[in-house]
Specification:
The structure holds two protein chains of two kinds. Helices cover about 20% and strands about 35% of the residues of chain A. Chain A contains six helices and 14 strands. Chain A has helices at about 35-40, 90-100, 105-115, 120-130, 190-200, 210-215; strands at about 1-5, 15-20, 25-30, 35, 45-50, 55-60, 70-75, 75-85, 135-140, 150-155, 160-165, 175, 225-235, 240-245. In chain A, the strands form three sheets. In chain A, strands 5-6-7-8-9-10-11 form a seven-stranded antiparallel beta sheet, with helices on one face. The mean pLDDT of chain A is about 95. Chain B has helices at about 45-65, 70-85, 90-100, 105-115; strands at about 25, 30-35. Helices cover about 55% and strands about 5% of the residues of chain B. The mean pLDDT of chain B is about 90. Classes of the chains: A alpha+beta, B mainly alpha. Chains A and B meet through α1, β5, β6, α2 and α3 of A and β1, β2, α1, α3 and α4 of B.
C-alpha cells in the first residue's frame, strides 16, 4: 500500500492511497498476476454510510468485508490503513483473541468505530494512538486544517511512533508505504523513494487529484498488487475510486 | 523512460488522471443505512456482488485447502462460534452478509480476518 496526505499552497488537504493486497496468495503463471488480487478487484465498492438520511461517512470496501481500510468523514478527517509486517503480527493477535483475550480491537473495525464516534482530527488521532489492537499497522490520518496529517505507527499494544506533517519546517506531505519511517525500506521494495521523488517533482503548487493520481500511477508505486486508488478531499467530502491495472512490465509488489 | 529489468521503475507519470490511464473502471456506490438492523444493512451490496464474493471465497478456500483441507473444516466448524464474541454491530453484520450470500458464517469471517492475519 501507499498512502499520502498532502496540502496545497492554501493549506487545503488531500488524502490518497493505493491499496495493494494479495502477496504470495497464489500466482497465476499464465497471466503473471496474483490470484487473490484479481479476485478482489471486482469486489471493490464505494460505500456511503448514512444515518438519519444524511451521510455519516464514506468508505471504499471490498464487498463482504465490513472493516474500514479507506474512509472519509466529510469536514472532519480522513483515514487509511496500511499493513505493517511483523513476526509478532496479526496472526498472534488473532490467536490470542480466539483463545479468549478480547481486549483488543480488530484494526479495521477500530477505524470504522473512529469514523462513527470521532468528530475531529484530534479525536480520531487520540483513539487510533491509544486503543489496543490485534495487529501492527500504520494509520494514516488527515484533517481539515493546514498541517493536519500524520502517520501513526502502531504495535499491537502500544504506540510506536507518530510522524506528523511539520509545516513550520516546510513539509507539505506525509507518505507511508509498508515500512517504519525511521528505517530504510528493503532494497527489493522501495516504493517510498519512487513516490517521494514524484511528489517532490510535482511540487506543492501542483497538489491536487491529478498530480497525486500521477504519483500513484507510477511504477512501482502502482504494481501487480494494486487493487484500487482512492482520492479524498475532506472539505468537499469528495471520494473518487479507480480500480487499477498495471500493464506489463510491472513489478509483482 | 522505463527500466526494462525489475523492479521496472519509470519516470514520474503525467496526465494519467484526465484519461483514467491504467484503470479498469470506477466501482459502483452503495448506501449502507446505519439506522437499519445490522443483519440486513449490507444486503444491497451483497445482492449486486454475490457472484464475485462467492468466487473470491472459493479461491481462498482453494488456497487454504491446499495447505490442509482440515483448515476449511475447522473454519466451518469453529469460526461461527466466534462471531458471537465480536462487538456489535460487526457480528450481526457478518451473519447478515453470510445469509444474503448463501455462504457459511465462518467463511465470511475468514474473509474478514485476512487483512489482520497477513501482517505476518
Amino acid at each position: 500500500c501507499t498512502s499520502i496526505v498532502a496540502q496545497d499552497d492554501a493549506g487545503k488537504l488531500y488524502h490518497a492511497r493505493n491499496l495493494d493486497f494479495g502477496l504470495f496468495m497464489g500466482w497465476d503463471v499464465k497471466n503473471h498476476t496474483w490470484l487473490i488480487t484479481e479476485y478482489l478487484r471486482p469486489l471493490v465498492v464505494n460505500v456511503n454510510f448514512t444515518r438519519g438520511g444524511k451521510t455519516a461517512y464514506k468508505s471504499v470496501n471490498f464487498a463482504g468485508y465490513i472493516g474500514l481500510l479507506t474512509g472519509i468523514k466529510p469536514n472532519a478527517f480522513t483515514i487509511t490503513l496500511n499493513e505493517r509486517f511483523n513476526i509478532d503480527g496479526g496472526f498472534v493477535g488473532m490467536l490470542e483473541w480466539i483463545m479468549g483475550q478480547r481486549d483488543g480491537h480488530w484494526t479495521s473495525f477500530l477505524t470504522r468505530t473512529v469514523m462513527d464516534k470521532a468528530s475531529s482530527y484530534d479525536e480520531a488521532m487520540s483513539m487510533l494512538t491509544k486503543e489496543v489492537i490485534l495487529a501492527p499497522v500504520y494509520y494514516i490520518v488527515g484533517g481539515v486544517k493546514s498541517g493536519e496529517g500524520a502517520v501513526v505507527t502502531r504495535d499491537r499494544t502500544k504506540l510506536d511512533n507518530v510522524m506528523a506533517m511539520n509545516t513550520t519546517a516546510g513539509e507539505w506531505y506525509v507518505l507511508e508505504t509498508n515500512y517504519d519511517n525511521w528505517t530504510n525500506p528493503p532494497f527489493f521494495d522501495d516504493r517510498r523513494a519512487d513516490a517521494k521523488k514524484c511528489m517532490d517533482y510535482s511540487g506543492k503548487k501542483g497538489v491536487g487529484f491529478p498530480s497525486i493520481f500521477d504519483v500513484l500511477s507510477t511504477k512501482p508505486v502502482l504494481n501487480q498488487l494494486t487493487t484500487y486508488t482512492a482520492l479524498m478531499q475532506v472539505n468537499a467530502g469528495t471520494l473518487e475510486t479507480y480500480i487499477r491495472e498495471c500493464p506489463h512490465p510491472c513489478y509483482p509488489w | 523512460n522505463a527500466q526494462v529489468l525489475p523492479p521496472y521503475t519509470e519516470d514520474c507519470q503525467h496526465g494519467m488522471y484526465a484519461n483514467h490511464a491504467r484503470c479498469a473502471g470506477m466501482p459502483p456506490t452503495f448506501e449502507v443505512n446505519l439506522d437499519q438492523d445490522p443483519s440486513v444493512r449490507w444486503n444491497g451490496v451483497v445482492q449486486h456482488k454475490k457472484k464475485e464474493l462467492v468466487a473470491m471465497i472459493g479461491q481462498i478456500k482453494l488456497l487454504v485447502g491446499a495447505i490442509s483441507p482440515k483448515i476449511i473444516t475447522a473454519v466451518d466448524q469453529y469460526l461461527p462460534e466466534l462471531i458471537q464474541k465480536l462487538p456489535e454491530p460487526y457480528g450481526a453484520e457478518i451473519q447478515g452478509i453470510a445469509k444474503a450470500s448463501g455462504l457459511p458464517d465462518g467463511e465470511i469471517l475468514l474473509f474478514n480476518i485476512f487483512y489482520e492475519i497477513f501482517t505476518v
